[in-house]
Design brief:
With 435 residues, this protein is of the alpha/beta class. Helices cover 61% and strands 7% of the residues. Strand 3, helix 9 and strand 4 form a beta-alpha-beta unit.
């Protein structure tokens, strides 16, 4: 993604601070920001910088998207899998041995089943190699009752949390080699709440490792709400609990040194995403541009909401009948309007499709309330009138249609009333059942 927020200088400054060997008491660091503010883009850019030529001799950075693994009950094996993928080839064998010290002697049956699942599902280890080692061990010893008891004790010991943490510390050392290891754990706020908190609790003992630093990317308010929900704490106690795991915080800014602000960035993101999706004509439509600039400012669209909007617009496009593929200023405006309405309040789309909403209610929803509430320029007033007309025609009762048609045909055109409003009706129909 282009650097719409001009955060590149901020990313470099953060990397300099975190990679500084003298900054020993800084981990874990939280990169905090609201949903849809571009935290993931920023975190990935930091990972690129830390793995660049500038730091490659002193730092190794591992980026892990925790949300991609929150289907698992235990986050620690998933985290270890991410570390394994970033381990040098020369150390992978040691990594496997440390993870599977149980694969020796005659523990062929049960251990191979367990090893096969762990190797294949979590660490992507060569299962055949483990099997061969177990076969050799099986030939060298016979299994008797004492060994069965030892095996039971070993399984009990292997399940002990302390043993796993100690093994994890050793594995971290294998990953980093002679360098400082910086681990970026992203999307914690998008994980299952229990998975995210268990992740913090599992790796809290690793936070103090002198040659390893952690960057936790999250919406801190959302994480505090998860603590509140899972443990039944009040709001203040939840924040205090979460702060136990945090030493430093960075807040991702919206307004940057280049003078960009959130609304400008969201609009530019919309424009570029529409072009990338093949909707160049729509993105360059003057009515659409003025409307979107107003909406993203008034409704404070996040980048994630922009992505949802463009996805909804794409759904509308692929759902339309081919013979209604006409593109002009008003038609494109009305389609983008429906996509915006769906993004802002999907329930409003359903209400409108059932003709239970008023014109003013819908206009207020997308930030086009009465002109007296905010300053509107001439283009915005024109757009508001177009959308109002389409809504009024759509919401009209059967007996009032002729009068409304006459009213708007004299003001606009036959095409507007009989084509654009019909297309608007179809867009609403497509989106009304989509969550």
């Amino acid at each position: 993604m282009p650097d719409y927020f001009n955060r590149e200088p901020i990313a470099h400054k953060m990397c300099e601070l975190i990679a500084n060997a003298a900054a020993k008491d800084i981990s874990p660091v939280v990169l905090d920001g609201p949903w849809g503010s571009g935290k993931t883009v920023h975190a990935k850019r930091m990972a690129e910088i830390l793995n660049s030529d500038k730091y490659k001799d002193d730092v190794k950075c591992v980026y892990w998207n925790a949300a991609s693994s929150d289907f698992a009950q235990n986050p620690l094996p998933m985290f270890m899998s991410a570390l394994y993928q970033n381990t040098d080839q020369d150390n992978r064998s040691l990594f496997s041995q440390q993870g599977f010290v149980m694969c020796k002697g005659a523990f062929v049956g049960a251990v191979m089943n367990l090893a096969n699942q762990l190797c294949k599902g979590y660490l992507k280890v060569d299962v055949e190699g483990v099997k061969q080692a177990a076969d050799v061990g099986a030939k060298q010893s016979d299994l008797d009752s004492d060994e069965e008891k030892q095996f039971e004790e070993f399984l009990k010991e292997a399940g002990d949390e302390t043993q796993r943490i100690q093994a994890a510390v050793k594995l971290l050392n294998l990953v980093r080699g002679e360098k400082q290891l910086i681990v970026i754990i992203d999307e914690l706020d998008r994980c299952r709440p229990d998975f995210a908190l268990k992740m913090l609790e599992c790796i809290k003992h690793l936070f103090t490792a002198p040659t390893c630093k952690f960057i936790l990317v999250m919406n801190k308010n959302s994480m505090a709400s998860s603590v509140q929900h899972l443990y039944g704490l009040d709001k203040l106690s939840s924040k205090l609990y979460l702060n136990k795991y945090i030493k430093w915080e960075f807040q991702l800014p919206h307004t940057t040194i280049a003078g960009f602000n959130k609304a400008n960035c969201a609009y530019q993101y919309f424009y570029n995403m529409m072009n990338k999706a093949g909707f160049l004509e729509t993105a360059n439509n003057k009515l659409v541009q003025v409307f979107m600039a107003r909406v993203v400012e008034v409704k404070e669209f996040s980048l994630r909401e922009v992505e949802k909007l463009v996805g909804t617009f794409n759904f509308i496009e692929i759902s339309r009948e081919k013979d209604s593929a006409r593109r002009d200023g008003v038609s494109e405006l009305l389609k983008v309007f429906v996509a915006c309405l769906k993004t802002i309040d999907s329930n409003m789309v359903m209400t409108l499709s059932m003709k239970q909403a008023s014109v003013d209610m819908v206009l207020q929803c997308v930030g086009l309330g009465m002109p007296t509430e905010r300053h509107f320029d001439k283009q915005e007033i024109h757009i508001r009138r177009l959308i109002s007309a389409a809504l009024e025609v759509y919401l009209a009762k059967e007996g009032d249609l002729e009068d409304i048609y006459d009213k708007y045909i004299s003001e606009y055109s036959y095409s507007f009333v009989h084509h654009d409003v019909n297309q608007f009706r179809s867009c609403l129909s497509y989106c009304s059942f989509m969550k």
